[in-house]
Request: fold
Amino acid sequence: MSDLPLIGITMGDPAGIGPEIIVKALVDKYIYGLCRPVVLGDPEIISSAMLRYHQKLTLHIISNSSKVSSTPGKMNLMAGSSLQAGSILPGKPEVEGGRAMVDYIVRAVDMTRKGELDAMVTCPISKTLMHQAGYAYEGHTQLISHLTDTHDYVMMLAGERLRVALVTIHCPLKEVPALLDQDLVHKTIIITAKALRDDFGFERPRLAVAALNPHAGESGLFGSEEEEIIGPAVGRARDEGYHVVGPFPADTLFHKAASGQFEAVVAMYHDQGLIPLKLLHFSDAVNVTLGLPIIRTSVDHGTSYDIAGNGQADDSSLKAAITMAASMAKNRQTQVE
Reply:
């Protein structure tokens, strides 16, 4: 068991569904066959979640990762906060909880960078609450990229049938054309291809790139981005030895990718890629940040304050994120060997 990867799981916002999905996921013995999970969170909140959701777990509070237990049913927890019982209720976010949720992330990044953890998995946070707590980042990804001093990174959403990497992420749709340039598209292709090889274990991954415009621009009739930006970026990557094709019209491309013709699709903007992804993987998709010096996966959903506390939260995405993190950790170790 000691050779299984150590995976840190940050609790997210204490008022969200993070505590619930953690106790539900870690009651599953299957997880302990893949990795040695360590929760970075709050003992009181996790203990309350165990009782509220009737999960038969024993809390094993540890001070460092060398004390991890590999016994199923024994939850390893490193206390990252000492919130008072009853001070933060499900569905009722508080600034104190916002500071705590960021502290869990900062500690997990530090431990992973030092090699005390092999990977980190993040439960959902509130961007608004993070700002209220004094951290002016767009979200998890931007905070972690800052903490790891990473400037070039890619957001990928992944499931069993479809993986999608995004060139642009959270921006107004009207700004997307102006944000695109050859270097940005090329960089996204290269980071994605390298991650598919090193982290996902594909020896020569096949990538397809989506067009921005309908019919891939129809030879300039519906837009020039394909001929001036996306096509040349694909050509550069192909000349460098990467197996990448496109740009293809998005309305047919995702069907081909989901059928197994490509290991991943590079999409130009958020909804272009995530609508088909979530159609196929609404419950079990994983958000993974490519290009980091550490491994970070995340659930692909928010804090869900509207259902927090009522026992309805689905832990499928967290289980998938843990499974993917463990697999990526093993693949990276193979690369080192």
The radius of gyration is 20 Å.
